[in-house]
Amino acid sequence: MIPVIHVEQIAEYIGQEVTIQGWVYNRTHKGKLVFLLVRDGYGFVQCVAFQKDLPPEIFETLVHIPQESSVRISGVVRADKRAPGIPGGYEIGVTGLEVVQAVAEEYPISLKEHGVDFLLDRRHLWIRTQHQWATLRVRATIVAAIHEWLGEHGFIHMDTPILTPAAGEGTTTLFEVDYFGEPTYLAQTGQLYNEANIFAFGKVYCFGPTFRAEKSKTRRHLTEFWMVEPEAAFCDLDELMEIEEQFISHIVQRVLRDRAAELAVLGRDTQALEQVIPPFPRISYDEALEIITQIREETDDPALKKQLQITWGNDLGSPHETELTQRFAKPVFVYGYPTAAKAFYMEPWPGRPDVSKSVDLLAPEGYGEIIGGSERISDPDLLLQRIHEHGLPEEAFRWYIDLRKFGSVPHSGFGLGVERTVTWICGLDHIRETIPYPRTLKRVYP
Ligand code: 4AD
Ligand code: MG
C-alpha cells in the first residue's frame, strides 16, 4: 500500500512512493514534461510528470487538467532545492493519477492580479490562494497560542453571551437585535461578564466574536471581529502589563517557530518579530503626546501636520499611533489615558481623577493598537456615578454594580483583537484578509 501523506510531512518520505490528495493549483506543460503545483490544504508541492514514465492516456490527462481539479497523485518524493512549494525543496515524480473531479468551467481566479472587490466577492475561492492560505494558517496558530498561554498561566475559558441587554464599550457602535419585541444588542465585549466570573474563578478569559457598527471604512476596523479577553482578580495595572507582554511575546515566538514557511510566503521581515520579547517600553499618554507634538513640529508635510493635531483629552487616532509606533522596535504600552477618552468602567489614577488606569498596547512598525485594557473601578458608588455620566441605563447594569458590593477587589483585564494581531504579525496593510469571511460597512457576502 502506498501511504497517503500530507504535503507538510513530505521531508520524511524522500525516496519513497507516496500519494497526496488535493487540487491542481497551477500547471505548466513543456513538451514531454508536465509540472503541476498541487495543494492539499497542508502545503503546496511540485509534481513532475515525464511522458516516457506514464501510460499515454494519463500523460494526456495531465497535459490538459484544469486548475482546481481535485486529484489523487502518486509518485516518488525527491529533494530538489529548486523546487517551488510550501515547504519548498521537494518534488514528486509522478507514477499515477486519479482525477476525482475534472473542473468543467474556467476557474474564476487565475493566478494573475485581480481587484480586491473582485476577490472579496469570491472570498470562498480566494482563500485557496497562497497568500490567503498562509495568512489564515498564521491566524490559526495565533489562536492556538492564545489558548495555550492562558491555559498554562491559570486562566480558565468561560464563554460570555453574544446577546446582551446594554452597551459594554460605548453606545455609538451597537448593533440592535429584536429579542421577542425587546431590544438587545450584539456583544461589543465579554468583559463585564468576565468581571463577574473572576469572583467565582480568579482568572478567566472569554474568546468570541464581538460586534461593532463601525461606520467608517478603515484598514483597521471590521464590524465583526474576534477578541480574547483575559480578566484577573487581585491584579493592578502594572501586573496587567506584565501579563500582556509575556502573552504577546509567546504568541509571536510560537508563530516564528511553527509558521516560518507561511511568513516567507507573505514576505514578512521576521527580524522585526524576533525582537518581540519582554520587557516592552512603557510610556504615559502625556509622554505619547509630547512625542507626537515633536513629530508634528519636525515634519514638512502639511497633511501629516494636520492629521497629527491632538489636544489633551482626546484618544489617539490611527495617524497618531502610526507615527508613534514607527519609532519603536517592540510593541509599546501607552498608559494613563484621559478618563473622558475611555469607557465608563476604568479605575481613576490615584490623585488624578481626569486620568484613568488604562493601558493600550500598540504594535510597532506603524501598526498601532492591538490591545485595550485597564484596571476596573472597584467602588460601587463611583461606578454608579459613571454609569449615569455616560447615559447608560442603570437597570441593565444592576448585576454589574452588585459585583462591587460583594467582596470587591482590585481587578484588571484586557482585550486583544485577533485580526489586528494577524495584520501586524503577517505584515499586511489591511485587516480584511485576516479573517476568512470579513464583515465591513459594505460587505456581508459571502
Ligand atoms: O479597546 P477595546 O474597545 O477594548 C474593549 O473592548 C475592552 N472591553 C477589552 C477588555 O478590557 N476586556 O477593544 C479591544 C481590542 C482593540 O485593541 C482592537 O485590537 C480590537 O479589540 N478592536 C477591533 N478590531 C477590529 N475591528 C474593530 N472594529 C475593533 N474594535 C476593537
Ligand atoms: Mg481601544
Overview of this structure, please?
Helix 4 packs across helix 6 (237-258) and helix 4 packs across helix 14 (418-426). The protein folds into 2 domains: 7-101, Beta Barrel (OB fold (Dihydrolipoamide Acetyltransferase, E2P)); 124-433, BirA Bifunctional Protein, domain 2, CATH 3.30.930. The protein has 446 residues and is of the alpha+beta class. The strands form 4 sheets. The chain has an 8-stranded mixed β-sheet, with helices on both faces. A 5-stranded mixed barrel has the order 1-2-3-6-4. The chain is built from 14 helices and 19 strands. The radius of gyration is 26 Å and the shape is elongated. Bound molecules: 4-amino-1,4-dioxobutan-2-aminium adenosine-5'-monophosphate (4AD) and magnesium ion (MG). Magnesium ion binds at residues 360, 369, 372.
Give short descriptive properties of this protein.
single chain; 446 residues; alpha+beta; OB fold (Dihydrolipoamide Acetyltransferase, E2P); BirA Bifunctional Protein, domain 2; 14 helices; 19 strands; elongated; binds 4-amino-1,4-dioxobutan-2-aminium adenosine-5'-monophosphate; binds magnesium ion
Q: What would you say about this model in short?
A:
The protein has 446 residues and is α+β, with helices and mostly antiparallel strands. It is 31% helix and 27% strand.
